[in-house]
Amino acid sequence: MTLAAEVLRATAAEKLMIDMKRARDEKARFFDALERLNRVTKPAQVFDTVLEVADDRIRATCLGDSGRTWHLGWWRGAWGCQCPSNAFRRGCAHVLALRRVCNEPTRPTREHAGLTAARMRAAQDEATSVRNGRRSA
């Protein structure tokens, strides 16, 4: 068996495993949603539960520049797209456009660490004085 045939076989096996995992995850989400719906009794609770379950996933299709159709969306807690650009660059214009349509910030917001330059300098000065045997009051 040639190396190319081995690589193709390994790729096909990997795709099969990914599809099996995706089907298993989808089945688990489906039965989880059914279980959650079976626990509620009032129409308002049913409505809220349906919204919570539906909120977990966003699906979309996009016609790319090449004329191909790409499937993209939010699933398993992350944005994703099937286009090659997304696979190689960890992001693509399709996902960026979908995030804008969904009114999600396209750039992650930086959380303030609570440490300013002045506080960092003061901490360094104190560490230096302790290291040199002088403790500041």
Report on this model:
The protein has helices spanning 3-39, 43-54, 84-89, 93-101, 117-131, and strands spanning 58-63, 69-75, 78-81. Strands 1-2-3 form a three-stranded antiparallel sheet. It folds into two domains: 1-56; 57-137, no CATH class. It is built from five helices and three strands.
Strand composition percent = 5-15%
**The biggest beta sheet, please?**
3 strands, antiparallel
Counting copies of identical and different chains, the oligomeric state is: single chain
Average residue pLDDT: 77
| Helical/strand content category | alpha+beta
SS field, number of helical segments: 5
What distance separates the N and C termini? 76 Å
Order of SSEs = HHEEEHHH
Question: How many strand units?
Answer: 3
Shape: extended
Number of domains: 2
What is the percent of helical residues? 55-70%
The low-confidence parts are: none
Q: How large, in whole angstroms, is the Cα Rg?
A: 25 Å
**Spatial ordering of strands, largest sheet:** 1-2-3
